[in-house]
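Troubleshooting log. The previous run stalled partway through. Resubmitting the same two chains, unchanged.
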Amino acid sequence: METGKTKVISVLVDNKPGVLHGIANLFRRRNFNIESITVGPTEQKNIARMTITVNEDEKTIEQVVKQLAKLIDVLKVDELSQGNFVMRELALIKVNVPSSKERSDIINCVDVFRGRIIDVSTDSLTVEITGTPDKIDAFLNLMKTFGVIELARTGITALGRGAKSIRIDE
Amino acid sequence: MTKMSGAQALLESLERENVDVIFGILGGAILPVYDALCDNKKIRHILARHEQGAAHAAEGYARASGRAGVCMATSGPGATNLVTGIANAYMDSSPIIALTGQIPSTGVNTSYMIGRDAFQEADIIGITTAITKYNYQPRTVAEIPVAVKSAFYLATTGRPGPVLIDLPKNVQAGIADVEFTDKIDVGGYKLVGEPDLAKISEAANLLAKAEQPIILAGGGVIIAGASDELIQMSDLLMAPVATSFMGKGAFPETHPLSLGSIGMHGNPAANKLMGEADVLLAVGTRFSDRATANLDTFASNAKKIHIDIDAAEINKNIEVDVPIVGDAKVSLKMLHAAVSKKLQKGEGKAWTKRVKEAKEQLSPLLKELPKDLVPKALLTELRKLLPESAIVTTEVGQNQMWSALYFKALKPRTFISSGGLGTMGFGFPAAIGAKVACPNRPVVDIAGDGSFIMTEQELACSVTEDIPVTVIVLNNSVLGMVAQWQRMLYKRRYMAVNLGKTPDFVKLAEAYGALGLRATSIEEFHKAVKTALNSKVTTVIDVPIGSETDVVPFVPPGCGLPQQRGDY
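Second attempt completed without errors. Output:
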């Protein structure tokens, strides 16, 4: 898997049916590997933002960006440059709670990682945690000692730093 | 605003794009459009006998004329039968518009609706996403004019390509107020601007200093109508011009600086000199594997300049020194002006001499006609028999590669073949389309027996619709190209290549009401071609050739252009 560094690509697209299919199809057809993809509406009407992370070498990333830019539904593509963007991922983790002693241990960990407990039952806790993928990985490792029942990760979403944007001129 | 049906809105929109012909086959889900065609006086409908034929005919029309070709089919199998033709147009950057009928998007009968696996339903939007520049599925009558206008705009601008419009039956039949405007809906699509001046200047510096420059011209030169600019550039630099297979016709192959096409079955002089050049100017070409062979030895001594209208082609297959993103015609003009200022006249005599010598040694012309009907002689003779303006299409396989090697194309848009996809069965329907676009010029399909059988049913179309073309079947009773590979690369272990009792092509032609002729000597071939050119109906000329004739020279898979084997 580790063929290069993980790169984050921001893509603004027309928010309409079929767009995701076109993008997914491009990655499959050109043999590019998607690590994660998040999609959601933007502050601009009818425009959605996709944040795609790709683990490929420089040359392939250049092709990914160019091929994405060629798609009719794609309005703008931007490869977020190393260190010059902020990114977050959200994870929901359902953790096994064997006893009340472990329950307080888990809650301590959640506090340290600045997570939140969003659901409680007699033998489980569901934790919400936000951060970089590394931070979530670290937290997950801790939770494994208690037993992870279920996990949902969103994949990262990101924006470039500073006032600069790839906003579409209206 | 005018009240009309979706079908009428479609035809009106097509007329506004100056469409005069549609190649198609009808079926249940496209009936409203065919019903509207009853009242249309401007658009001719040509009934193909298989949708693949319709799609290839539309491409033949497009490539001969430079205008978008239109094909139409019903939903389900009609639409999926177009797929090969659409993929072909995508690979060869040809502007075609594919219109397909579709199951209704809404209706009273909810089991006969998109998404319910209704009779003859196929997700043609999903299926063609990877092989169209874009596709549309209007869900209201009012969206049709915008979809058609946008489709033609996308298909014909930038790097051209196929666009599909899928028309749900209820949208074809529905009545609504329709407005025809110049509005288009093309998302983030932008035309490329002027090429970067700094890059032009950088390229000019390289070219002005080059001692052994070479030009590689691709299909983009033909699409951009940049042949004159290409000739001027070649003359200015005294640079020999090789073409990719798709570029055949971009540069007159009788020009002293023409090297013919490069590649796996390229002209040896072109393949050899590509390795000797110090600067390569590549225009409108995508460096396909069949053109470059092994990349390590491709033009390995040359600094590379790459002009292409599609930015994604830059550095895709080959890393280049100077990329120029722009239209071939515009870029060549600017580059010509820039080089003119910098060039020292009177240089390059040694290179010109070397080019001449390489051509004479490696790619000798036939001194005298051989007694036997060998492809080289046949195609050399065919060139003499056809006027410059004649359009030649080919099938795929040995017939195609012999044509590339020995049939000299003199003008752009006169050599039409399936380059990227390599679709057997392309040539004949494409010839029909080309003939419709250029009714006053002879159109000849150079075919093999294996390929011709794949779309031979279009004889019915060409005879019934009065579209006379000539088909020359180089008949070796085998699937020759794969047989050659089995012979050369699989120790002569032949499997599934022998066509056994191929049909009698003379009788086959006659069965369709076409003219069938057979030529077993050069004299008979002459006579047959002359008869065909004067014939009022499509003529099939059966030319038996040896079943073990190879296409040589040949660059074996994995090898580089310099490792070409066999004599021209």
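Takeaways: Residues 9 and 79 of chain A are 4 Å apart (CA to CA). Residues 58-70 of chain A form the longest helix (13 residues).
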